[in-house]
Amino acid sequence: MKINFFKTIIFAFLCIACSNKTTEQQVKNEPVRLIFETDMGNDVDDALALDMIYKYVEAGKMDLLAVMSNKNSKYSAEFIDIMSTWYGHADVSVGVVENGANTETDGLNQNGINYVQAVCEMETDGKPAFKRTLSNHESLPEASVLYRKILAGQPDRSVTIVSVGFSTNIAKLLDTPADEYSPLTGKELVAAKVKQLVVMAGSFDEKPIAEYNVVKDVPAAQKVFAEWTTPIVVSPFEVGIKINYPGASIENDFNWGMLHPVVEAYKAYLPMPYDRPTWDLTAVLYAAEPDSVFMNQSPQGTIVVDSAGYTTFKIDEQGKHSYLNVTSEQVEIVKKYFIRLITQRPSKYMEK
Questions:
Q1: Which of 280, 293, 301 is closest to 332 using CA atoms?
Q2: HSE (CB half, 13 Å, CA atoms) of 192?
Q3: In the chain, what is the straight-line distance between the N-terminal and C-terminal CA atoms, in Å?
Q4: Whole-angstrom distance, CA of residue 181 vs CA of residue 1
Q5: Which of 22-31, 70-79, 262-271 has the least mean pLDDT?
Q6: Smallest Cα–Cα separation from 42: which of 249, 184, 211, 235?
Q7: CB half-sphere exposure, 116, CA atoms < 13 A
């Protein structure tokens, strides 16, 4: 009887181990479950980054669960809706910031408007140039609420969050209490459901700067780097500024006989032609292809944000933070990859 009992116990443990291994392998082989956090409207690289995400979605490499706007602007969420509709993924949820950073005058062009407003107000024959799916963008859910709703329904340690704007929304998520979606607090929910956080922020160069995404909401950035419970991978200022998306591509590679929201956004952001750093694109690239040769990664360590918005990194084997860097050879490889990916026609507009 004892022998049979122990055989049963051993068999049960083996079944559990195999089940856990199978689950981990399934999650690894699945598309990246992504939530995209963006300050859409301050710099046009956010629009290019969202374009990349939809290309990855169509390639089966990403499953876009939601897009969160951390820019205080009704046009930010509306532009995101325009992009989702144009690419044929209108079912993607959108969340918005409440009491976000003051960015009303950030990203304005020579006409006194930013590119998201320019695209939202574009008309052809007296009608909006681009279709929307949502009828009332001002009724969209607050981001931390939408985070809880989405994360609660995902497998454990399966979600990647890419944050290419301010940390306002994700810092607020950490402080959320249990609710109708989950009995877990925000920190507990992140620990349970999030695999990693990939952030475009900071600077670790020999002459570091107080980087924009950090400076606009320093307390939120400090909170996230101090209290976030999963690994954080940072694509810093010095990576994206080395890799410039060429304005010549915008002018020459999209002659598809139709208006393109990203092309129109790029044209509206600054006087053409100009090349633009790919800060936000590099964060998306890492999230989609972490094991690639596109970029290098620092050892594990800890990142601290000071009161002025400067970021410092200290190597620590027990740390959960790391940052990316690129060689001159990788700069050219990544640039060509970005051009090739972004200039692909979405399947919705493939030539018959």
A1: 293
A2: 16
A3: 70
A4: 46
A5: 22-31
A6: 211
A7: 29
Topology (CATH) of 32-345: Inosine-uridine Nucleoside N-ribohydrolase; Chain A (3.90.245)
What is the C-alpha separation between 335 and 313, in angstroms, rounded?
27
Q: Which two tokens stand for residue 43?
A: 């710099």
Which value, to the nearest 10 degrees, does the dihedral of the CA atoms of residues 208, 209, 210, 211 take? -100
Q: Evaluate whether 116 touches 73 at the Cβ level (below 8 Å).
A: yes
**Structure tokens, 280:** 């936000």
Q: How many helices (H) and strands (E) does the chain have?
A: 14, 14
**Quick one: DSSP state of residue 177?**
-
d(CA 67, CA 161): 10
Range 288-300 average pLDDT: 96
Model-level pTM? 0.92
The DSSP code for 142 is B
**Which regions of the chain does DSSP assign to beta strands (E)?**
32-38, 62-69, 93-96, 123-124, 127-128, 159-163, 194-200, 232-235, 244-245, 276-277, 296-297, 301-305, 311-315, 321-325
* pLDDT at 266 > cutoff 90: yes
**Contact 97/169 with Cβ under 8 angstroms?**
yes
